[in-house]
Design goal:
single chain, 343 residues, alpha+beta, Rieske Iron-sulfur Protein, 9 helices, membrane, iron-sulfur, metal ion binding
């Protein structure tokens, strides 16, 4: 290694351009020092500092109001299954959460910009574990920083900050509570029962067996679902897919529960309840887009890939005297996710 390379390694980084005197050994860069510190109004004017303190406290109070607003929105806006109530609840919670987060952030930034120390300092590198004196000095610096932050001298900021931070996580408790109890055996009960006609989703109208072409898939719901209370809940449980295949590809159960190769299966994935809405016509596979669970339609919707553990439940169907499809019974097992209690 040359003298110049050794000097670069000792005084800079390899490849760094250094000033080289005639002797050939480069010198260190000249230390430019720190720029002159510019004092803020709060540093020199006690009134300005007090005004900034009140401004910070104001934003922290807004954050407290926002956190309380989240809780009030969850409790006050009761869910009745309508889109209007869902929209109102979402907007109220969203605006309150925005106020809580935004005001807390603005208050913290304003506090840092106007009241916390902003002068630059140099902390020289040293070995990882310092001496006892250095450690005591570090503790003293931390205490000094805490003192300069003004928590001890500015009780208004300290108290409002404690209030904002204490209230901020509380809405999470109400969020979890608002999810409601586990469904118990509710997934075992749907609107499907003997004699219920299949209607198209979302346009409505009964379906003729002759209109279901080979290789097609139709999204269906039980007739009369729009007239019941909690329509959204019932749709989530009762959504069904019907498909028509060559009868030679189907199992004995599928042919018994189907009509001329047309079979009906729950649209609700048995993993996490996502809608199974993708049908591969060539492979006869149903796919869940959420976690890629794949069901083989020619094997009683057996799971052949992905995290789902159960086949999709089949709905037994038949055709009436006018040629319309109807259910001969409800599902013989619960639809949807497998991790909930079943009855």
């Amino acid at each position: 290694m040359s003298d110049i390379e050794r000097a670069e390694e000792a005084h800079g980084q390899p490849g760094t351009t250094l000033a080289r005197p005639e002797g050939g050994v480069p010198d260190r860069f000249e230390n430019p020092g720190l720029p002159p510190h510019k004092h803020r109004m709060g540093d020199t004017d006690p009134k300005a500092a007090k005004r900034a303190e009140r401004q910070v406290a104001f934003f922290l109070l807004l954050s407290i109001i926002g956190s309380i607003g989240i809780i009030v929105s969850i409790i006050a806006v009761k869910y009745d299954g309508s889109f209007e109530r869902i929209s109102l609840s979402t907007k109220a919670i969203g605006l309150s959460m925005f106020l809580s987060l935004f005001a807390l952030g603005v208050g913290a930034v304003h506090w840092a910009k106007t009241l916390m120390p902003d002068d630059e300092r140099i902390d020289m590198r040293h070995r990882q574990r310092g001496t006892t004196a250095e450690r005591e000095e570090a503790v003293a610096i931390l205490k000094e920083g805490a003192g300069e932050a003004g928590l001890g001298r500015r009780p208004l900021i300290r108290n409002t900050l404690v209030g904002a931070l204490a209230l901020f996580p509380i809405p999470a408790v109400f969020f979890f509570r608002d999810t409601g109890p586990l469904p118990g055996n509710q997934l075992s009960v749907t609107m499907w029962k003997a004699g219920t006609h299949l209607v198209k989703d979302p346009e409505g109208g009964r379906i003729r067996a002759a209109d279901v072409s080979l290789g097609s898939v139709v999204h269906v719901l039980p007739e009369g679902i729009e007239e019941v209370d909690h329509t959204l809940n019932e749709k989530a449980k009762s959504a069904v897919l019907i498909m028509r295949l060559d009868q030679s590809l189907l199992t004995e159960k599928q042919n018994d529960w189907g009509v001329d190769g047309t079979v009906a299966y729950s649209k609700i994935c048995t993993h996490m309840g996502c809608p199974v809405a993708l049908y591969e016509q060539q492979t006869h596979h149903l796919l869940c887009p959420c976690h890629q669970s794949t069901f083989d339609l020619t094997q009683d919707c057996k799971v052949i890939f992905g995290p789902a553990k159960r086949p999709l439940p089949q709905l037994p169907i038949a055709v009436d005297d006018e040629g319309y499809l109807y259910a001969t019974n409800g599902f013989d097992e619960a639809v949807g996710p497998s991790f909930w209690e079943r009855g």
